[in-house]
Task: structure prediction
Amino acid sequence: MADRPRLAFDPIRRAAELWRSRWGPRSQPLAMASATSIMRVQQLLLSEFDGIVGVHGLTFARYEALVLLAFSGSGQLPMSKVGERLMVHPTSATNIVQRLEAQGLVARQPNPHDGRGTLASITDSGREVMEAATADLVAGGFGMDMLTADEHDQLFALLRKVRVARQDFAESEGSSVY
Result:
């Protein structure tokens, strides 16, 4: 992150000023700035995460797949569930798992409950790599260590509100992280 040149001004704040100037206050300059800020933070975090897990031969997408498999009760999931839970196209899920398999971190085998399906299983090596990458992400505060616990809870609640409104999942729980 330190290698990236910093801008002398906040381009999103400036864009909001220009947006308001051109289209007026009814054009939602704050909503545009909020949405653009979320996307920019996502880019910054993903770049940082890729650098952290890259030390372990992973991309963040592959790391997420390993965590997903590790979180499953049996350490394995049907490929259809991998794509669904990672929220990626089935082709992307297949590509992620194939790359992990080539690294020896995941194994694939026919699904005994679905003659056409495939199961992805995390290997012992996959667990070791995932644990080491997780320790590094935790040590880095997931790139968010500038926020207090209350701010994390507030941010989670606000972003969850957007996700619920966009029908990302069926709302059945409270808005707090825990």
Observations:
- The chain has seven helices and three strands.
